[in-house]
Amino acid sequence: xxxxxxxxxxxxxxxxxxxxxxxxxxxxxxxxxxxxxxxxxxxxxxxxxxxxxxxxxxxxxxxxxxxxxxxxxxxxxxxxxxxxxxxxxxxxxxxxxxxxxxxxxxxxxxxxxxxxxxxxxxxxxxxxxxxxxxxxxxxxxxxxxxxxxxxxxxxxxxxxxxxxxxxxxxxxxxxx
Length: 176
Fold this sequence. Notes:
Blueprint: H1 2-17, E1 27-30, H2 32-38, H3 40-76, H4 83-136, E2 141-144, H5 158-168
Parallel strand pairs: 1-2
Helix pairs in contact: 2-3, 2-5, 3-4
């Protein structure tokens, strides 16, 4: 009898704890990388960045050539001028190179910050669109596709959100 009671209790406990749970919650996912890189605004940001980087590179290539020529002229003077004066000119040249590198680093950091600011603005637009979409379609949870191992293709709303984003935001200007 004791064995029978134990089996019944075990069955009842297992019955209550191992029943299937069905949820009415709607969970979907999106690919944020697709939204940021292929939307009209994202492509606009990327094109502006490419143009800015190319322009910056051309400008610094010219300065680099000028510094290389200056270095060559300095090396030609090595045997002609006084060693003390030569050392002084070398120090001045090294200072110029250091300033050139610092200026270039600042410029690159500035361009990078412009890119980050513009993409954050785009993410803000995406977040607002997602909030509106989830409220309208009674969605409980929206996940990033990168965090999902396996998911039904039906739950991917990337294309729908991309369409809404392209309708709402066409272009984001890089700010100075």
